[in-house]
Records
---
Amino acid sequence: MMQSSRRNFLKIAGLSAVGISGAKPVLDAFAAEGHGDERTEFEIRKNEKALTAQQWGMVIDTRKFESAADLEPLIEACHSLHNVPHIDENKVRHEVKWIWEDEYKHVFPTLAGKFVDERTEHLPFLALCNHCENPPCVRACPTKATFKREDGIVLMDFHRCIGCRFCMAACPYGSRSFNFKDPRPFIKERNPEFPTRMKGVVEKCNFCAERLAVGKKPACVEASNGAIAFGDMNDPESEVRELLKSNYTIRRKKGLGTEPAVYYIV
Amino acid sequence: MANNKMYDKGKIVAGLVIFAVMITFPFWFNLGKAAPAPELKLTEKAKAAKECVLEKAEMKAGHMQLLDIWREKVVREGSREYVNTKGKTYQMSLSKTCLDCHSNKAEFCDRCHDYASVNPYCWDCHIDNPKEKK
C-alpha cells in the first residue's frame, strides 16, 4: 500500500492539473457539440440611413401658424400615421392624443400673465411630448416601459406597459393618454405599417422613432412646410441650434427642471 | 364465531364498478382520439421563399425567442435589421416581415397556437394581415 504523505498528494494533484489542461481541447469539443455546426453569428444592425443624434429636439415657429386650422394637417399626419384613435368628442376623458393644439395660457401657464397681448392670446400652439432631458415619466414608470433612448427620445415599450398611469401623473405636460377602451374601432383608416395599441396601455408621441430609423424626419415636421425644425440639440451646428441662436424662444414649464427639448419661437 | 359476511354485497360491488368506470371515463372515452398535430399551410410566397429567417426546425421551436430579441432590439435600440447566418438581411418586423410571407394567420399561426393552447397577444396591436386594407 502506498503510504499517503504530503509528497504523494502533491504529485497526484500536479499530475491531475496537467491532465485536465491537456484535456481542454477535448472538453471544448464536447461543449461545442450542443451548439451544432460551424455557424457564424447573426448580426443585428441599424439601417444605414438612420438619423442619429445625442438629444433630438424641435423648434416650433409659432409665427408661421395663424389659426388652429393650420395645425390640423400636422396633427392629422401624425395621428393617421400612428393609428391614434379618434374618440368621440363628448368623451374627452377617453381622448387619446400624441400632438394637439391649445391656447397660450394652457400651454404656458407659468408664463401667461394676467393680461396677454391679443396676438399671443389667440395664437394656436402645438403641444406634444417634450422628450425632456430629465423626464419625470421615466422615473415614475415601475416597469421601465418608458425609457430614455440614447438619442434623447423618451420612448414607450407598449409590450411592457402595465397601464398603471404613474407616468401620466408624473408628466407635467399632459402628453400622455390612456387607452380606456380598445382603440381599434376608433381608428378611421388603419395604417398597416404601424401597430395599434391595446386597451390598458398608455401612449404618447415617439418623435417618429420609426421614421428616424429609416432616415426620415418626423411626420409633423414634414407636414409643417418649414414651420417646425428638427435636429440635434447637442450639435452647435444643427439647424435647431442656429434657430435658437437667432430667435427668442420659450419652453413649457421650464422651472420644473425637466429640460424640455421642444422650443417655441413666439 | 366471527361474522365475515359482507352485508349488501351486490350494491357495494355494483357501486364500486360504477365509481371505477366513471373516474376512468375521460381516459377510455378519449382513447385513440388524440388530436393529430395540426398541418400548417404555407402561402405561395412562403413556399417560393423556401427558407425562413432561421432553419425550419429552429423557427418551429424558437420563433418566440427570436421575436423577443427582435422586439427588444427594435424598441430599445432602434436597430431594425437582422442579418441571418446565411447573410440575408431582414427587417425585424412581425407585420412587415413575418406576416408578409405568412399572411395566412388562421392556417399558419393559429393552428399551432390553438393546438398548443397558447394565446399570444401579438395581434392585439400588430396588424395580422398588413396587405389587407382596413
---
Amino acid sequence: MENKIIIAGFGGQGVQALGKFISYASIHDGKEVTFLPSYGPEMRGGTSNCSVVVSDAPVASPIIAHPDMLIAMNKPSLHKFEGIVKPGGTIIVNSSLIEDKVERTDVKVLYVDANRLAIEAGNARTANIVVLGAYTKLSGVFTPEIMKAVIEHQFAKKPQVIPANFAAFDLGYNL
Amino acid sequence: MAVVFEKTKMLTDTPFHYCPGCTHGIAHRLVAECLEELGAEGNCVGVAPVGCAVFAYNYFNCDMQEASHGRAPAVATGIKRVCPDKLVFSYQGDGDLASIGMAEIVHAAMRGEKITVIFINNTIYGMTGGQMAPTTLIGEKATTCIYGRDAEKNGNPVKMSEMLATLTGPAYIERVALFDAAHVRAAKKAIKKAFTYQKEQKGFTFIEVLSACPTNWGMSPEQAIDFVKTKMQDFYPLGIYKDVEAKN
Amino acid sequence: MKKLMKGNEAIAEAAIRGGCRAFFGYPITPQNEIPEYMSWRLFEVGGTFVQAESEVASINMIYGACGAGARAMTSSSSPGISLMQEGISYICCAEIPCVLVNMVRGGPGLGGIQPAQGDYFQACKGGGHGDYHMIVFGPQGVQECVDLMYNAFDLAEKYRIPVMMLGDGMLGQIMEPVELPEMKDLSALPKKEWATDGTGVGTGRRIVNSLLIEPDRLEAHIKHLEEKYAEIAKNETLYEEYMTDDAEIVLTAYGTVARIAKSAVRMLREKGIKAGLLRPITLYPFPQDAFLRTAQKDGVKKFICLELSSGQMIEDVKLSTHMLKPVEFYGRNGGNVMTPEDIVAFVTKEA
C-alpha cells in the first residue's frame, strides 16, 4: 500500500494541519510516512500545500508527481492540481468555496460542503476535519477509531474543542 | 641579594617582536600584571588579533586563541559562554577592532558579554605598513592618505569609547594612555578595574589604550610620545566613559 | 512508537543528545527551526545559545567555544555558509572539532529559498582559502540526519575536524517518523588536552592558532592534514547500494534526490530496465572505491548523475570511475525538484 496525497488551499484553512493529522495517524498505525510542506512567503496568506506519502514500506520519494488523491480546499488549488491526479485517483473538492466542477472523467470525485458542515458541527474552524473524515472513508487507509485517537491527542491541551471536531469528522465520514 | 623587581609570571620568556618605542610591550605587561594580581594564573584565556599583536599568544602565559581579523570579540564570546568562570580577554588594535571588526565589538558590548577588551589605538595599520586606520586623525599622514587624512576624501575617525558608552551592555569603559609613568600607573589601575568587574560578573569591560607607533608615524620614540600626549589626547580625551558602579 | 519530527527539529534534538551544549547562529530560511529549537532546548540541558550578529560572528563563536573544548554547532543556509568560509578555513587549519549544518537553498547570490544542491563544491572542495577538507554528510532523510548527527561530535573530535551536514530545504522542512537515541553521557568523554579551557600555564599552556608563518612549519602542518584526510577516507567513507547487483544503468545521487531516484529505480525495474542506485552518504570523503568497483563491472553500461545543480558531484563520479563508463547528467535548478517520473523519462529517452 502506498497512498500519495496532495492537500492544497489558502493559508489558514488548516491545510498543513490536515496533512499532519494523516501523518500522525500513520505513526499511530505503525505505517511509514513523509509530510512535505510548501514553505516560504507563500505560507503567509497565499496558497498553501503539502505532500503526504503513507506507505507500508519506507517511503522513497517524498515528491509526488501524480497523487492518488487531491484534497482541494479552494478554487486555485483545484485548477493547479486537477491535471496531475493519477487516472483512477480521487479528488475531494471543498464545494463550499469551489462552485466549479471537476472536468476530468477518469477520476472519482467527492464534493464536500465542508464549511457548512463545520458550522453544523458547532465550530466553523473544523472544515479541514470534515474533509479528514471524508478522506478516511474514501481512502480506507485508516480506521475512524485511529483518526479519532489522533484528534483527541492533538487537541489534548484544548479538550473543549474535541466534541466539535469529532462531530465534524463524523459528518465528513458519513457523507 | 634581595629581589626588588620580578617580571610578572603571566608573561612568557619569549622576547617581544615590537619595534623600539612601540607601547604594545608596556600594554602587554600591564595586562599580565593585572591578571597575576587577580590570581588568574591557570584561570584565564586570551584572544590575540590580526595586526601587530598577532603573536600575542606567544607572550601571555595562559591559554590563548588566535582569532581571524576583527573577530576576537566573537571568539571571546564563544570561549566565555562555555567557560563562564574563567577570565577571558581580547587584545586588539584599531584596524582589527574599529574597522573590520566593528560589528563584533559593538555586538559583544551590546550583549554585555562578560569579557575584557584591551583596545590599542595607535591611529595606524602597523603590521601592514602604515595605512590609514579608522582612528587616524584628520590631517595625519598614512600610506593610503599621503597628504594627511581629509574628511571629505577619507571620512572621519571614530571614537570607540564614547560610542560604546552609549550602550547598555558595558559595565566599564575607560580611555588611558602610556606617555609617562603616572599615566602608565593609571592605565594599570583601569585595566585591573576592568578585569575585576569581569570577575564580579558586572558585564562587558573595555579599555582603550592610546599607543605610539614611531615606525609607521615616521617619528623618533620621543616625538611619538609627544604626538600621543598632544594630538591624540586632544581628539581622544582620557577618562572613564562608563562605570556601572559610579556614584552620581 | 516513533515520533513525527520535522527535519530541522530532529537534527537539533539529535545534536543535543549527541552532546551539543552550545549553539551560535543567525536567522536564514530554510533552517530557522534549528536555532529556534536550540534557543530554548539548550538551556534545559545546561547549555548556552547566542543569536549572533552575523554568520561571520557565529562561526567565530564556534571557533572560540570549540577551541575551548565545548561541543558547539551552528547552522545556516547557503548565503550564510558563504559568509562563514573564512572562519571554516581557520577552524580547519587550527584543527577545531565542530559541527555545521547547511540546509542548502538555490543560488548563486541571494538566489531562492527552495531546495538545491549547488553548494557541493563549496562543502567538499574547501569553500574558503587554502588546502583543507571537512567531513561532509549528505543525509537522505530525517532518521539518517538523526543517526549521523548523533555521532557527528564524536567523529569531529576523533579527527579534530569540522563535520558538515549538507541537507537541503526539503530535508529541513519534511516531517517523518524518527527514533531518537538516548542522551550521551558526556562525563565519559576523554579530556581534550589541546583545548584552551583556561587552566593552562607555562609549558602546559595551549594555543589554538592557524598562523604558521615559517614555510617549513606550514608545509609540515599541511602534510599532517593530508595524512589525516587519508585516514578519514580509509575509515569513515559511507555509501549505500540499492539494486546495483545486476544493474546496467547506475543512477547516482545524494540527499533527498537519492530517495526520489530510488522511486525511479523501482519504476524503471517495473518497465524491465535494470536500474540501480549508488548513493554516497559521505560526500567527503567521496566513496571512490565503490564507484570504481561499480564502473569495472561488465554489466554496467553507464552512470547517470542526478543533482539539484548544474552538475557538481558529477566531477567526483567521473574521477572515481576513471571514466570507464559514460557518465550522463540530469539536473534541476533554481529550487525546482525533479520527480521520479522526470528521472524515468530521462532514462528511457536515453536508454
---
Amino acid sequence: MKKIKVLIVSISFLCVMSCKKNEDAPSVDFATLKTTVLADFSSKVAVTIYLDLDNAATSLNTAIQNLNTNTTEANLTAAKTAWKNMRNFWEQSESFLFGPVEDNDYDPNMDTWPTDYVQLDSMLTSTNALSLADIQSATLSLRGYHPIEYIIFGNHGNRAAADITARQKIYMLSLSQDLANTCHALYLSWTSAPTNFAQQLTTAGVSSTVYAKKQEAYLAMVEAMIAICEEVGEGKMKEPFDAQNPAIVESPYSGNSTTDFKNNIVGVQNVYLCKYGSNSGKGLKDLVASKNLSLDNKLQNQITAAINSFDNITAYYEVAIINQKVQCQQTMAALATLKATLENELKPFIIQYIQD
Amino acid sequence: MKKLYIISSISLLVAFFTMCNKASMVDESAYDERLSGGSSTVFDATSKAFGHAFDGLNNRDAQVHELGDGAFGQTFVAAPALINSGLGPVFNNVSCISCHHNDGKGTPTAGFVNSSLLFRLSIPGTDVNGGPLAIPNFGGQLQDVAIFGKQAEVNMSISYTDIPFTYTSGETVTLRKPTYTVTNSYLPLPANYLISPRLAPPVFGLGLLQNIPEQTILSFVDKNDANNDGITGKANFVYNAHTHKTELGRFGLKASAPTLQIQVAGAYNQDMGITSYVFPKESSFGQSQSDNINDDPELADSILDATIFYTKTLAVPARRNVTSPYVIQGKQLFMQMNCSGCHKPNLQTGVDLNFAALNNQRIQPFTDLLLHDMGNDLADGRPDYLATGNEWRTAPLWGIGLFAKTNGTPFYLHDGRARTIEEAILWHGGEAQKSKGKYTQLSKADRTKLISFLQSL
C-alpha cells in the first residue's frame, strides 16, 4: 500500500512538473522571438528592400542616361520599365515609414505629389543649368519620381521618344541622379554610421538610443502599418474618389496608381509575415500565432483580402473612380477592416505581451 | 455608558466630516496622470503620436478630419493648376506638413525644403489695429523662398555662438545662441526693421486649448505680482481679421492669434501664399512680385474649414512612465521650483456640446497661455500687439518627451536653439529666473529626475 501511495505521489509530482514545463516552454520561445522578429524584420525585409530600391535607382539612372545618349523608343521603354520597377520597391517600403526615411525627409525629397507644371515649364524655358545642385535645391514638387514620370511617360504613357526635348533630357538626368543619391543615402542610413537604424531597431530595449523598450520598436512597426492603410484607404484612394476628381490621383502618367496602392499593402504583408522576395524570417505573425492563433488567421486573411481586392480595379484609377466605384469602395472597405484589426487587436496584443 | 456616548458621538462626527471632506474634493491621486488630453488622450508614443483624431468622432466629423488630414499634407503648386493651386509667389514652405513634421515641431533652418523656421517682420510702431507695423514691399513676414522665376524676399543666414554654462556642482553644458543675418534682400529693408524667429510648433490638442474659458486664462494674470513669486503674466489681446474685433490671443508663440481659424488661415496665407475667405489677399499683395492672377481665394472654403477642424480634433498623446519614482519625484521638483507657476499642469476646458472630447475636460497642457518676460537672452525685441520684445507665451509642455520620436532630432524653444530639454531650461530668464536659479542649484541626480518627468510628458 505504501508503495502505491509513493507511486501516486510520484505520478502527481510528475504531472505537476510536466504541467509547469508546458507552461514555461512557450514563454521562453516568446522571449527569444521578441528579439528575433526585430532582427529579422530589419535584415530580411527593411534593409533588403532599401538595397533593392538603391539598386533599382541606379538602374533607372543608367536607363535615363542611355535614353539621353540614344533617344530611341526601345530606350524609352527600358526607362519606363526601370521607373516602374523602382516604384515597386519604394511603395512596398512605405509600409514602414519610420526612422530615417521620415526623420531625414527622404520621403518628401523623392515622392512629392502633385507635379508643379507652371514651375516646371518656367524652369525648362529658363536658362537655368538644371544641374544636380539646382535640382537638389529646387522645391519638392520639382524633384523625385513624378517629374521623371511626367517626362518619360507623358499622359498615360503616350510619350514618344522623339518628343522629349533637349532641356527635358538635361532635367531628367539630374532628376534620376538626385533620386539615386537619395535612395543610396536611405539605404546607408539603415546600415552604417551615424544612424545605423537597423542596429537601433535590433537592439531595442538593450542598447538602442532610439527605442528604450522593445515595445516602442514594435509599436513603431504597427503604427506604420496602420498609417499606410489609412494613407491608401482614406487618402490616396478616397480623396479623388469622394471629390470624383481624376486630377487628384497620384502617378497618373504611368497609370501606375493602383499598382502603387497594392504594393503599399503588399508591404504590410511583408512586415507582418517577415517575408520579402526569397527572404523569410520570424515575423509579427509568429508572435501573434503563439498566443492568439485566431488573430493571426484574421490578420493574414484580411491582408490577403485587401491585396486581392485591388485586382478588381482594372481601369486606370483615375477612370475607376468614375466607372468602377463599387470595386474602389470594396477595396477601401477592405483597407478599413484591416486597419481596424491592426489598431484594435494587433496594437493591444503588442502592448499586452511585449512590455520590455 | 456616558463615555460610550461621547466616544460614539465623536467618532460619528469624525466620520461625518471625513466623508464630507471626501465628497467635496477629489484627491489628486484619483486622476489618471497619463490622460494629458482628457478622455480622448491617445496611447501612442511612436513618431505618429501627434497625428491621431479624437476617438469616437461621428462619421461626418471623422470624414471632415480625414479631409483636413489630407489637406494638411498637400503640397501646393504655382498657379494656375488643376489642384493645390496658388503657391507663393513668395512663401516659406509648400505644405503644412513640411514645417510641422509628423504634426509636430520642425527643424530650425530657413529657406530649405525641410525648414520650419520663419521670421515675422515689422518696424517700430503699431498699425491701426494695435498690431505690428508691416513694412511696405515686405509685409509682416519674410518669405524666404519664391516660385521659379521670382526672387525670395530675402535669404536668412543662421549662425550659432557657443555659450558654456557651468552648474554649481561643476558639470558644464554648451548652449548655442543664434544670430540671424538678412542677405540678398530683393529690395532694401529699412534700417530699423525688427525680426522675430518662430519655429513651427506641434499642432495637436489645439481644440482643447481653444476651449479653455477666457476667464480661466485671465484668472492667472498677476499684474502686480501679488503673491511675490516673480511671475506676473499678461494676456495678449489681438485683432481678429475675420470678426474685426479685439480678442484674447491664444495661439502662436506670442499669442497673437485669437482662434484656430486665424492661426490656420494665417499660416496658409503668410507661410504658403495661399489665399482663403479669411485672408483673401496674397501675402505679396501690392508688391512688385505679386502674381496678379484673379484666382482668389485660392483655397476652397471647405478645405480651410477642414484643416482648421483637423487641428481642432487632433488628440493629445498620453504621458508615459507616470508611476516611475524618478518621474514622480521629478514632478514634485517641478512643482516645488514653481515651474508650474507658468506651466500650469491642470486646466479645465469649458462646455462644448458638439464634442465630448472637448467638453469639460481635465487636461494637462502645462501652460497658462499667458505672456511672460523670458529675459533678454530669449528676447526677439519685436513687439506683437501687447507682447513686448521680451515676452513669449508659455509653451505647452505636453508631448515634449516625444519630440525625438516625431522629429528625429528634437529642438526646443521658440527658435529651436535648444537641442535638449536641459538647454531649454537653462535659457529661461526674466519671470522664470527664480525657477531656473533653483534648477541650477539642484544636484545632478535631482536634475535628472526633473528631466525624466519632462520626458514623460
---
Amino acid sequence: MEALQTRQLVIDIPGRANGSPLDLTVEAGQTWGVLGPNGAGKTTLLHTLAGLRPPRQGEVRLGERSLSALRRRIVAQRLGLVFQDRQDGFPATVLETALIGRHPWLSPWQMEGGDDLALAEQALEALDVAHLSDRLVNTLSGGERQRVAIATILTQNPDIWLLDEPTNHLDLHHQVAVLRLLEDQAKSGKVVFMCLHDLNLAARWCDHLLLLFPNGEACWGPAEQMLMPSVLERLYNQKLITVEADGAPVFVPVRS
Amino acid sequence: MPASEAFRPLVLLALLGLATMVLSVSVGSAGLSLADTLAALTGSGSELNRTLVLELRLPRTLAAFATGGLLAVAGALMQVLLRNPLADPYVLGLSGGAAVGALLSMLAGLAGVIVTASAFGGALLSTLMVFGLAHGTGSWTPSRLLLTGVVVAAGWGAVITLMLAIAPTRDLPGMLYWLMGDVAYAGTPWPAFVLLLLACLLVLPAGRSLNVLARGPLQAAALGVNVRPMEWGIYIGASLLTATAVTTAGSIGFVGLVVPHMLRLLLGNDQRVILPACALGGGALLVLADTLARVVIAPEQLPVGVITALLGVPTFLYLLYRSR
C-alpha cells in the first residue's frame, strides 16, 4: 500500500526552473535515500513532503488524502521529521526533548502520563543517550544531539519517518546503530525517507533512491538501478571508482 | 514528574502573593499591626482602620497585584514567541504604544472600556511595527529586534511627552504615570483581575503547544502545532494583557522581564507551570515594589516604575551580557 505519494510535485526553490516534476510512490516498508549535491533541494523536498512549505505545483498525498487537507495534528501522528539543524530557544533537558514527541498524541488538557514517559525513556535507551536524560540539550555534543533528535521521532512513532542527514555528526559505530534502527523500523512496516550525504551509506542501506540534480532534474527507482557510476558522476560532478566490499558497491572519488 | 508535584510551586507562590498583600495593606503612613489589618479585612475593627484598609489600601494593592501579574504573563508569552528571554512589553515599546492609545482617547474625551480598547490598539500597532520592521526579509535576530523595540519605545515616550505638554486639560494623571507607571492612580482593579484569571485558564490547555513552540516554529509545525494561528494568538493576547496593565497603572517596566527569568531559573520552562507562576510572582513582586515605593521616602511616594526599573535594568543588562 502506498503510504506517501507525490503527484507532479515541483518543490519551490526560488530562481530555479521546474525541472522534472516528482511522481513518487513510497510504500510501507521501503527505505528511500535522497542523494544530490549541496543546494539540490534535498532539505526543501523533505520540508515540502512534511507540509512545512507549499510546493510550487502538484501535491503530496498521505495515504488516501491530500496532505494539505489534513489537520496538522493528524499529519504529525502519521509523519515525523528530523531536522538537519536544530533551533535552540530555551534550555531543555534531554528527557523533555524526547517527550515532546508525544505532543501530537495528547489532547490539549492531557498531561504527559507514565506511558508517555516510558516511551520517551525507551527511545532514549534505544539511541544510547538514556544516561544523559537530565542533561540540558545545548550542553551536548553534535552527535549526542543528533541521537536525541532521533529519539524524539522514535517517541513520536509516526508511520512515515523523514530524516534530514540522520548520520550527521555521528561516529562510525553510531552511524551503523542508527541505520540499523531505521532498518528495523522499515521492517516493521514504516516508511523511512532520508537525505544522505554519504553515497556509500545510501548504497548499503536504502532499497530505493531519488537523485536530485541541481538544475531540478531528478530520477528515482530501486537502488540497484540508480547506482550507475556514470549517473552518479554526473550527479556530483566528480569522477568515481567503483569497488565492491561486503556485498555492496563502494564509490571512491578519484583523487585528481 | 507527577502533575501534583509540578504544580506545588504555584501553591507556594499563591501563599507568597497573599502574604505580600497583607503586608502591603498593613504598611504605610499609619502602620497597622497584623491583628488590626486582619480584623479590618474581615469587617471588624475600628471604623478608621476599615476605611484605611478596605477603601484606600486594598484597591491599590489589588491593582498592583493584577498589573504585575498581567505584565509578567505578557512578558513570558512574548519570550516564548520570540524564543528570546529579553523580550518584555516595556522594552519592546508595547507599553508605550498602549499609553499613547489610552492618552489619545482620553484627550478625545472618552472614558472606560474605550480607553482600554484604544490602548489595545496602540499596543497591537506597536507590536506589529516592531516585529514587522525587525523581521524584515530574514528572521529575527535578538539585536535587531531589541534595537527596533528600544527605538520605537523611545519614540512613544516622546509622543507621550508632546501630548501631555500641549494637552489643554490638566485632568490627565501626571506625566510620570504614563512614562514610568504608578499604581496610585489605579481605579478599580477588577477588569485586570478577571483578564488575568482568563489568561491563566486559557494558557493551561495551550501550555503544551507553547512548550513545543518554544522549540522553534518548524519543529512545532512538524509536531502538529498550528503555528501561525498560535503566534497570532500570542501577539494579540500579549497586547491585550499589556494594554489592560497600562490603563490600570501606566507603563511599568521590566516586570515582564525579571519575573519570568527568575521563575524559569527556579522552575524550568514548562509553560503550564511558568505562566500561572508568572501571574502570581509578578503580582507579588509589584505589590512589594509598590509597598516600597510608598514607604521609602514617606510621606512622599515614588512611582512604582522607578523601583521596578532599578530592579529590572541590572537584570536586563546581565541577560544581554550573558547572551553574547
